[in-house]
């Protein structure tokens, strides 16, 4: 009998011919390492449960038949999780890093860089893309801003369009869902609205936390969810936090969002960040060496979303200087410019605060600084004043000036009020915390 590794290498040549897409091959098959033969079974080690499930449910027959082609014998297969990698596997893993994917401005699995921070979310997303409605329903991806949640959702959708073109997909942000619903109610055509969201095979709702506390949207979404779920249609959701931590989210939704699989994405560790930068440079056709990419990662500490803008600026400067390849000098120059702009952005002014508060509370900026005393406006005004006190260096009197000439004691009263809401009203507390975070980031 051939050594196990040789059998597997040959079997893989058959598998790659038969499998639906290269990314499936890379993720599920390359992720498996055969390590022993016992009682007519070949044992494979994989690193995640998802990989094990996918092999067992989707690829076992293909693997068994491919091994049969190579050896002329029918082996069974056993998949185990977390066996140590041998040299061969390590080598393969390195190769995986070097696989070149088609440059695409779209968000796909091919241009999603996988690292330990997002490995599970990536695997679950791919599993859903291959078998929508099958096992992981709903798929709930959560994590901080700019970590690739929306990217993964689009990747699933693109994959489905390519591989299961008959399936109808619907992609919406929770905000759009809410707006469309309100409009449908106003225009009395809720039927069309329902039709749109219930006659789909895969529904993607981005940033689902947005609907929390909006009672009729929650109600409508609950019904949509049930209709889709009951007919085995796939639902994919993203959020900035796990369902149970979304403040004011209706309990029945918290429960439903946890029925399938929940996976979080963590901020990328160093290697992944470098990988993402490389990928983005490639997507934007920027000629830059790995060395310079590493230089960037080491010298500027910004999040993934900002990195993309940074690269665009870098590329523009480099082109102006007619560089064939982006140089370190240009990187230094753009970093210095970029950082000073960021510092400027960081200075919080009453105007910025009022605009952020108005947006979050959905009121007019002008109303906040007006003298109107209706309840909807008083709280946003008090919150604005509170944030001015906490996030700027301005005195009570100066702050008062911004809010239609209020005196010292009125401003102080507003600050005290918000401080007490922070203890008694979780909704306001959350809003204030969100605003503080957004404004100081
Ligand atoms: P989120 O929805 O989590 O806030 P996005 O999906 O919008 O984040 O990602 C922000 C940007 O960062 C996008 O350009 C996305 O392509 C990129 N990005 C984030 N993570 C990755 C990754 N692992 N591989 C490639 N690009 C990534
Ligand atoms: Mg997003």
Sheet with most strands:
5 strands, parallel
The beta-strand count equals: 8
Bound molecules: adenosine-5'-diphosphate, magnesium ion
Treating each run of at least 4 consecutive H or I residues as one helix, how many helices?
20
Structural class assignment: alpha/beta
* Unreliable segments of 5+ consecutive residues: 92-105
- The dominant shape is globular
Radius of gyration from CA coordinates? 26 Å
Order of helices and strands: HHEEHEHHEHEHHEHEHEHHHHHHHHHH
Helix proportion range: 55-70%
Draw up the topology in text.
Layout: H1 4-18, H2 22-29, E1 33-38, E2 41-46, H3 49-71, E3 76-81, H4 87-98, H5 119-130, E4 139-143, H6 149-163, E5 169-173, H7 174-186, H8 190-198, E6 202-206, H9 215-230, E7 234-239, H10 251-257, E8 261-265, H11 270-283, H12 290-299, H13 304-320, H14 328-346, H15 350-361, H16 365-369, H17 375-391, H18 396-402, H19 408-424, H20 426-440
Parallel strand pairs: 2-3, 4-7, 4-8, 5-6, 6-7
Antiparallel strand pairs: 1-2
Helix pairs in contact: 1-3, 5-6, 7-8, 11-12, 11-13, 13-14, 15-17, 17-19, 18-19, 19-20
Report on this model:
This protein has 441 residues and is α/β, with parallel strands linked by helices. The chain has 20 helices and eight strands. The chain has a five-stranded parallel sheet, sandwiched between helices. A three-stranded mixed sheet has the order 1-2-3. It is globular. The chain binds adenosine-5'-diphosphate and magnesium ion. The site of magnesium ion (MG) has 3 residues, from helix 6.
